[in-house]
Give the backbone structure.
Amino acid sequence: MRATALLFTLLLCGSSPAAPVAQDYLCIQGHEQSVTTKLQTYIRQGVTDFFKDRRIAINPTTLQINLSSGTQTGADTAPYVAFTGGVAAGSSTLPGSSIAGTVAAQDGTKFNVLLSSGSDTQDSAQYRIVSTQRRFDREGNAIGEHCSLKLFDSGDSGATESLLIVNATSGHALGRIRLPARISLY
């Protein structure tokens, strides 16, 4: 009887796939704004560099980056954070994309920064939540814990790995900026 109980306990402990998922999910809790700010800072620098490389002078005071984020969990996927633009794109841009930012050139030409690589449906950047630690102490508390986000494609047709810079008036695409492959939170 005692061996059966021990075997049953070992089976329960060994077949608990929810533990890593919960750990990954929990590592981002309370840090959503921090990670959103980090991605916005990356995009701001990327947009500045994009126009500098093309020798297009922008008005820095017009550069606005606005993202929203939501943590996604499900039975079929590992937890991830989806970032979308703060304003839905209108008819002057690609359908399905979302505006992550706007900027104007010195001559007044306006540009949209879209979460899209050019597809009709891409409108979010999806990052898998990755939690790691070196080991646990005697009480089961993580030692050397780290939390980061890793860019991935969840299979959702809305996922993108880049930003598209588009002339806001004509809809002409100027080029793309690759999103960061990894964002370290702590």
User: Anything to note?
Assistant: The helical segments are 2-14, 18-28, 32-53.
